[in-house]
Amino acid sequence: MTQDLSALAVSRDRQLADLLRSGPVVPVITLERVEDAVPLAQALVAGGLRLLEITLRTPAAADAAAAIIRDVPEAIVGIGTVLTPKDLERAQGLGARYALSPGATPDLLDAASRSELPFIPGIATASELMMALTHGFKTVKFFPAVAAGGIPALKALAGPFPQARFCPTGGIDEKNAKDWLALPNVVAVGGSWICSTADIRAQAWDVITAKAQKAVAAAQA
């Protein structure tokens, strides 16, 4: 059984590494209307951002994610705000390529360690990171990034945990994203500034594409 879980962990790590190469900036998306899902995803892909996080924060979220998976094959859809093992099953059933959580309970980590779906648990402390690593998860979400200590915190964690890789989310914006990405233990950043609720409600797809292009250029620089 231990060997089986180890093999799953290696497979998940490889899949996740491949996914994260698709883009170091992950738009964190909250959709209130299913009809906005496809044009939003198309706008982000047009701007160079393929790796998306659809949060399970609204009643429309699951159907919106399903619509993007069905109609925008260029997009790589992950399900965020995964809080329970049931949420993880739901993400896999939708056809998500990966899943993310703002935190991680023992039950969720146990379920994720038995799943083939690449999963990024959330951590805010060294103890939480140790628990994630013990369950085989080397890539974690640092959340809430700025409130939990910001860049100095990740620099400090690099010492005792050189094997850990981070996707900081929470307080990341166009002004500081490049500073986070400059850290050697950061593989990607997540943020909602690229597709704000106001822009989505206004269906300002051209604005969102322009923000995506700007984020890609900043990350590359």
Automatic annotation (TrEMBL):
Q: Which Pfam families match?
A: Aldolase (PF01081)
Q: Which reaction does it catalyse?
A: 2-dehydro-3-deoxy-6-phospho-D-gluconate = D-glyceraldehyde 3-phosphate + pyruvate
- Is Transmembrane one of the keywords UniProt gives this record? no
What InterPro entries does its record include? Aldlse_KDPG_KHG, Aldolase_TIM, KDPG/KHG_AS_1, KDPG/KHG_AS_2
Under the heading PROSITE patterns, the entry gives: ALDOLASE_KDPG_KHG_1 (PS00159), ALDOLASE_KDPG_KHG_2 (PS00160)
Pathway(s) the chain acts in: Carbohydrate acid metabolism; 2-dehydro-3-deoxy-D-gluconate degradation; D-glyceraldehyde 3-phosphate and pyruvate from 2-dehydro-3-deoxy-D-gluconate: step 2/2
UniProt EC number: 4.1.2.14
Q: Which residues form a coiled coil?
A: none
Superkingdom, according to UniProt?
A: Bacteria
Entry GO MF terms: (R,S)-4-hydroxy-2-oxoglutarate aldolase activity; 2-dehydro-3-deoxy-phosphogluconate aldolase activity
Instruction: For this UniProt record, give its keywords in alphabetical order, as a comma-separated list.
Output: Carbohydrate metabolism, Lyase, Schiff base
Q: What assembly does the database describe for this protein?
A: Homotrimer.
NCBIfam families, alphabetically?
eda, PRK05718.1
Similarity section = Belongs to the KHG/KDPG aldolase family.
- Protein name per the record: 2-dehydro-3-deoxy-phosphogluconate aldolase
Which species is this UniProt entry from? Microvirga terrestris
